[in-house]
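Ops channel
N.P.: pipeline sanity check, posting one input/output pair.
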């Protein structure tokens, strides 16, 4: 039976392949730092297309790539290879993006017009 591509995130990282752990860790690090594929590509000196191919599993992250990723995020390469939880846990808190507060749902926005004057609500 041919192997199918599984979702990146699993409950048990030990059941993930090494490639899946690197992709999951990279995605998690990009998420927690607020970086886009284009941002990461610029930092690593490769194209956004190359990042996309690696993250989709169409191309593999090489050991040299993993070293560059770990250095970019300021973590040990073994923490990157361990998966998303370990990689994010060892990321310097200063690298994490500031979470945005939840939107106030009671405030009218430009897309929510006020009721017309003189019409019943």
């Amino acid at each position: 039976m041919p192997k199918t591509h599984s979702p990146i995130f699993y409950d048990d990282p030990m059941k993930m392949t090494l490639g899946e752990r690197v992709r999951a860790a990279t995605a998690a690090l990009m998420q927690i730092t607020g970086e886009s594929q284009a941002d990461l590509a610029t930092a690593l000196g490769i194209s956004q297309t190359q990042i996309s191919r690696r993250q989709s599993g169409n191309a593999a992250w090489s050991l040299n790539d993993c070293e560059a990723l770990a250095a970019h995020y300021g973590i040990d390469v073994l923490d990157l290879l361990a998966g998303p939880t370990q990689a994010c846990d060892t990321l310097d808190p200063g690298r994490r993006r500031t979470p945005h507060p939840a939107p106030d749902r009671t405030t009218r926005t430009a897309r929510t017009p006020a009721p017309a004057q003189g019409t019943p609500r």
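N.P.: looks fine end to end. Confidence is low (pLDDT under 50) at residues 1-10.
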